[in-house]
Amino acid sequence: MKVYFCGSIRGGRDDVSLYRKIVNKLQTFGTVLTEHVSDEQLSDRGEASTAAADRQIHDRDVDWLRQSDVVVAEVTQPSLGVGYELGRAVDMKKKIFCLFRPSSGRSLSAMIRGADDGELFVVRDYSEDEVENVLQEFFDNLKTT
User: Fold this and answer.
1) How far apart are CA 138 and CA 145, in angstroms?
2) Helix or strand or coil: residue 115?
3) Residue 89 and residue 67: Cα distance in Å, rounded?
4) Which residues touch 76 (CB under 8 Å, ≥6 apart)?
5) By three-state DSSP, how is residue 20 classified?
6) H or E segment and range at residue 4
7) Residues in Cβ contact with 116 at an 8 Å cutoff, skipping those fewer than 6 apart
8) What is the pLDDT of residues 108-126, one digit of tens each?
């Protein structure tokens, strides 16, 4: 199984250690095409900041998105890039699982929460200490459908 993981990069790296925990768990289910999102060395400037590099990143990531079997997004830290990836994934009819931590004090965008249809697009509120169990439950259910 190929997993596309979405997490904030240029929108802020406050949750990078949580991303690492998520990616480690996702790797037990298959190949994580975007494991670099959880790299603590990656700053909020991203991989590069030139127009040509941005185009290359966009095209590479859209290609990975096409290849993926499932998309998992941590959506607590607002990110234009994650929103864009989710919109593209919806258009590609990918199975999407969004994770949101209400304890952050933030409110999740209605465009994300409102997209939850319980099948192709699922949003789950969680706390950091239960993230591995939440992912396990999602992937267990994915295998039975």
Assistant:
1) 11
2) coil
3) 11
4) 15, 99, 100, 101, 104, 106, 108
5) helix
6) strand 2-6
7) 98, 122, 123
8) 999 999 999 999 999 999 9
- pTM of the prediction? 0.95
Q: Which letter, b or e, does each residue of 113-133 get, where b requires 16 or more Cβ atoms within 10 Å of its Cβ?
A: eebeeeeebbbeebebeebee
Q: Where are the alpha helices (DSSP H) in the chain?
A: 16-26, 51-67, 80-91, 110-113, 131-144
d(CA 12, CA 23): 18
pLDDT tens figures, 81-110: 999 999 999 999 999 999 999 999 999 999
Neighbouring residues of 17: CB distance < 8 A, sequence distance ≥ 6: 40
